[in-house]
Write a structure and sequence with these properties.
With about 240 residues, the chain is an alpha/beta fold. It has a single domain, classed as Rossmann fold (3-Layer(aba) Sandwich), CATH 3.40.50. About 45% of the residues lie in helices and about 15% in strands. It has eight helices and seven strands; from the N terminus they run E-H-E-H-H-E-H-H-E-H-E-H-E-E-H. The strands form two sheets. A five-stranded parallel sheet has the order 3-2-1-4-5, sandwiched between helices. The protein has a two-stranded antiparallel ribbon with strand order 6-7. Helix 6 links the parallel strand 4 and strand 5. About 40% of the residues are buried. It binds zinc ion. The site of zinc ion has 9 residues, from helix 8.
């Protein structure tokens, strides 16, 4: 990864340790002089996600020394009370299925609104102005708080309510899952793709197990299905590395 000339702005990346947020972290490191990460502990089923966060951060620092100086602090905020309110398949031991209102049972009501509001409060204290998240409408999972319209409205509310000039940056918003792999290849070449395959975690069931070409996971939950289909699409396209 060749660092571009960075914006003097600082960025806070919502970083779960998954493929999408790992790609967002690389995207931010290429653009901003100072990048910090925030994770939310809200009773996820899998402590494995929290471990993945540290492995991806360490991997970026090791494999991309030119960017290591830009990678600042990591923050973990305890949102256990939010997890208690929003019990769903991600936070409780329920099956992953579609609910009667057409949302997957993995939908945690208002999650991105809550996360971004906490992130903005933290960014205010840290002097960071860009909030970077992996929300995506293209392979739309049915999550209404991933929509750009929702985030535009929230950005306006945060800026009015905190008298700030935050921008909510969503570099994956209009990309397919295949193009998310392409973006990783564009940003960091095979080294970044390998790091994301090896260390990022996406599986809803929290399985690591054997390593598939696209990474670790159970291979048949909705999150693994999306990740594997995206990988297959990128490979079928000839593993393009241009800007998606
Ligand atoms: Zn899985």
């Amino acid at each position: 990864m060749i660092p571009g000339s960075p914006s003097s702005q600082g960025a806070l990346v919502l970083f779960s340790g998954g493929q999408d947020s790992a790609t967002c972290l690389a995207w931010a490191l290429e653009r901003y002089a100072r990048v910090e990460t925030v994770g939310f502990d809200y009773g996820q089923r899998h402590i494995i996600e929290m471990d993945a966060r540290q492995r991806v951060r360490a991997g970026i620092a090791d494999r991309f020394p030119a960017l290591a100086a830009r990678l600042g602090e990591d923050h973990v905020l305890d949102l256990a009370s939010f997890g208690a309110v929003s019990e769903s398949a991600l936070t409780a031991d329920r099956a992953i299925e579609m609910t009667e209102r057409g949302l997957p049972s993995t939908f945690v009501p208002g999650r991105n609104l809550v996360f971004l509001t906490y992130a903005a409060a933290l960014a205010d204290r840290r002097g960071l102005t860009a909030l970077v998240g992996g929300m995506c409408e293209t392979d739309y999972s049915g999550y209404p708080d991933c929509r750009r319209d929702t985030l535009d409205a929230l950005q306006q509310a945060l800026n009015l309510g905190m008298a700030r000039d935050f921008s909510i940056e969503t570099p994956l918003m209009w990309l397919t899952k295949a193009q998310t792999w392409q973006l990783a290849a564009h940003l960091g070449g095979p080294a970044l793709v390998d790091l994301i395959v090896e260390e990022s975690h996406t599986c809803y069931r929290g399985e690591r197990g054997e390593q598939h070409p696209w990474g670790h996971g159970c291979g048949n939950c909705p999150a693994c299905d999306l990740r594997a289909a995206g990988w297959d699409g990128w490979v079928a396209a000839g593993r393009p590395t241009g800007a998606p």
